[in-house]
């Protein structure tokens, strides 16, 4: 397993719902598309998702405390950029965007 993917799995165990989309292979697909097309990437971080679906819960519930959605700045990579570079940037962005503001 590549180190970037391994790190994504580790992050997922620490922040299960914030990392869900990153870990499920979506990010790998995005990295391949970005590397081939040069399309810009915009990361979005979610804080407070455990209020909606607590760990071990099956059904969502109202999030009375609120969920915070943080949008990063778009970044364009050069055509042919490595997937590791793109995934590394995405991982760093998600880490910053999901850091609690407390």
Tell me what you see in this structure.
With 102 residues, the protein is mainly α. It has one domain (3-97). Helix content is 48%, strand content 8%. The chain is built from four helices and two strands, in the order ααβαβα. It has helices at 3-14, 20-37, 49-52, 83-97; strands at residues 44-47, 68-71. The chain has a two-stranded antiparallel ribbon with strand order 1-2. Helix 2 crosses helix 4 (83-97). The radius of gyration is 15 Å and the shape is elongated.
Could you give the topology of this structure?
Blueprint: H1 3-14, H2 20-37, E1 44-47, H3 49-52, E2 68-71, H4 83-97
Antiparallel strand pairs: 1-2
List keywords for this structure.
48% helix; mainly alpha; two-stranded antiparallel ribbon; 102 residues
Helix-strand sequence: HHEHEH
Overall mean confidence score, pLDDT: 76
Per the principal axes of the C-alpha atoms, what is the gross shape? elongated
Going by helix content, strand content and strand pairing, the class is: mainly alpha
Strand order of the largest sheet: 1-2
Q: Calculate Rg over CA atoms.
A: 15 Å
The helicity comes to 40-55%
Low-confidence stretches: 16-22
Question: What is the terminal separation in angstroms?
Answer: 34 Å
Number of strands: 2
Count of structural domains = 1
The count of helical stretches stands at: 4
Major beta sheet, specifics?
2 strands, antiparallel
Q: Approximately how much beta-strand content do the residues carry?
A: 5-15%
* Oligomeric state of this protein: single chain
């Amino acid at each position: 397993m590549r180190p970037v993917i391994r790190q994504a799995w580790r992050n997922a165990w620490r922040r299960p719902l914030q990392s869900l989309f990153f870990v499920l292979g979506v990010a790998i697909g995005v990295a391949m598309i970005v590397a081939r097309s040069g399309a810009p990437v915009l990361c979005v971080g979610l804080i407070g998702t455990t209020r909606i679906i607590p760990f071990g819960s099956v059904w969502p519930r109202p999030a009375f405390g609120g969920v915070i959605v943080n949008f990063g700045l778009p970044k364009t990579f050069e055509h042919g950029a490595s997937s590791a570079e793109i995934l590394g940037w995405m991982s760093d962005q998600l880490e910053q965007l999901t850091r609690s503001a407390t």
